[in-house]
Amino acid sequence: MSRLEARPEPSRAMMLASPLIAALAMLVTGSILFLFLGQEPLHAFYVYFIKPATTLYGVGELLLKATPLILCGVGLAIGFRADVHNIGADGQLTMGAIAAGCVALYFDGVEAQWVLPLMLLAGALGGMAWAAIPALLRTRFNTSEILVSLMLVYVAYLLLSYLVHGPLRDPDGFNFPQSKMFGDSATLPLLVEGLRVNAAFILSLVAVAGAWFFCRHTFAGYRMQVSGMSPAAALYAGFSAPKNVWLAFLVSGAMAGLAGVGEVAGPIGQLQPSVSPGYGFAAIIVAYVGRLHPVGVLLAALLMSLLYIGGEAAQIELQLPSAITGLFQGLLLFYLLAADLFIHYRFKPRVRVATPAKSEIAA
Amino acid sequence: MNTEYVIAFLASTAGAATPLVLASSGELVAERSGVLNLGLEGIMLVGAVTGFMATVHTGSLTLGLAAALAAGMAMSLIFGFLVLTLQTNQVATGLALTLFGIGLSAFLGRDLVGQTVAPLPALSFPVLSDLPFVGPLLFRFDAVVYLSVLLVIALGWMLARTRIGLQIRAVGEAPHSAHAIGMPVIKLRYAAVLFGGAMAGVGGAYMSLALTPMWVEGMTAGRGWIALAQVVFATWKPRNVVLGAYLFGGVTVLQFHGQGMGLAVPSQFLSMLPYVATIVILVIICRDPKTILLNKPMSLGQNFKAD
């Protein structure tokens, strides 16, 4: 029997190790689950977690899926650091996609260099506008930003559904609920010919660098970190809580909006009833598993992307249910939270006190 | 708009409200003990799928509801273990539980899509059920509808008048003081969290066994989050939970009856109503910080560790 003992100060080593422990625990659980589903665990493990990354095409897909996760995750992490919880990134992503889609369809047939930048701008603004609602209601009326941002996700989904069933439906689309395919000038350039990964991935790397600079070298970043770690100290220092809320929501909203543009101007190429398989929610896991650090988010997004790609491969090759991806994503976050225990606590073997040694009595 | 239509509208309101009554009242108890469980949506989904699965396999709705109750407790046990024993952050853990629940329910329900069960039957009271107007409005619901309202009355009494109710409130207001006078803070919080999970599980199963007797991935469509908002609307008072839930039930039903009532609005906008209404009411309730601050359990969302 052992018991937990508080560490005198948080362990830096554990802070870095706990995401790895969590990933490892998730992989082990995955293997057990494969066994349970009647698969040969090592083979299933290989198909799920290794094989997708062994081909160039697979790596391209990995980066493609990681892009929206990085963009959303980096934005969310900035807010989470300040204890501002934007849970509605999927809605903001959807609004970004809608805004960019409207631009693309309005300028359909215009072959000009400025269409794509305009779409990116519209997407970022669309995401920001949607994120501004919970920020406004929180700062003005003290309304929970968690609940409001989440409710707005469903509203955004329904708005997109209305648009592709109605005003934005392709008139020549055989009545399918989807818009026209975007033209060449409204499609993001591919990074490598033959792969689907596009310029949005570069954008996500820029976002990582920008977020790193913001957190490390700006006063606003410092202010937000203090507010998250010690609200009392932030209050004493006169840091404005509403400013943090606004900044967190506008930044993460813009990033989520850009992620939406990356999807509709990238692999999807049009507006559809759904433009995200829950990237905005998976990004919550990405942010936490990445330790709310921009570089950590990048790595966590790659891991999460592997879960998506591996899930698809396992579905095709092993006939495993696709829902397994979501299961692994949730497990990963559970294990991380549990492993975080060791940042602040350590196991202390229970010493038998029945026959204390002399030296202990003397002490 | 004729009377029959109004009766049908009001009667289906009770059905739509019941999952919210169950999930919110369970969460209310957990929050009164100081624990904020944002995993409600995930628990409801797992409850919905296990309840449906058990009913498909056994043919018994009672066993289905019992399985959902057990599944809800199991889900909240994971949450309780992380938050109460391992002291993890309540917000992050709750979100993790929801994401896990979405994945787990889709995984468990993969073979159930397309199957149906006979829905929970309506009770029939001699004479009363046949009364005009009053009959269909009050005496033709299934047992869970009545039980959910009785539950809230019992909870109100429990929290206000019984020893365990007072202990739960004490633990939610001032866990350190409660611990100092010998109350088992962690055990009480475990009990409250497990109760909350059980109710959310049954609330989810009510959706898959009574409202729409089938399983669809993500079928709760945010009901868990609305239930969380309801606890805030109710300012942590059980009787307000029923009022709020029936109000929302009405708004939800409006989307099915809206076009029949002559509202020429695309269906997607009617479907937005429950979510928009949630936001609007949250604003109305929260804009006066006094109503919230006076009633919110003081230690809500804060972990407790005895030293």
TrEMBL record, chain A:
GO cellular component annotations of the record: plasma membrane
Segments forming a coiled coil: none
Membrane-related topology note: Multi-pass membrane protein
Domain of life the protein comes from: Bacteria
InterPro entries membership: ABC_transp_permease (IPR001851)
Protein name: ABC transporter permease
Organism annotation: Pseudoduganella dura
Keyword terms of this UniProt record: Cell membrane, Membrane, Transmembrane, Transmembrane helix
TM segment ranges: 12-36, 56-80, 113-137, 146-164, 197-215, 245-266, 278-311, 323-343
CDD domains reported for this sequence: TM_PBP1_transp_TpRbsC_like
Localization: Cell membrane
The UniProt record lists the keyword Secreted: no
KW S-adenosyl-L-methionine (keyword) present: no
GO molecular function: transmembrane transporter activity
Automatic annotation (TrEMBL), chain B:
Pfam family, one: BPD_transp_2
Annotated InterPro entries: ABC_transp_permease
Stretches that traverse the bilayer: 6-23, 35-55, 61-84, 91-109, 137-160, 190-209, 269-286
Membrane topology label: Multi-pass membrane protein
Presence of the UniProt keyword tRNA-binding in the record: no
Entry keyword set: Cell membrane, Membrane, Transmembrane, Transmembrane helix
Subcellular localization, as worded in the UniProt entry: Cell membrane
Any single Gene Ontology cellular-component annotation: plasma membrane
Molecular function via GO: transmembrane transporter activity
Record PANTHER family: ABC TRANSPORTER PERMEASE PROTEIN (PTHR43370:SF2), SUGAR ABC TRANSPORTER INTEGRAL MEMBRANE PROTEIN-RELATED (PTHR43370)
Protein's name according to its UniProt entry: ABC transporter permease
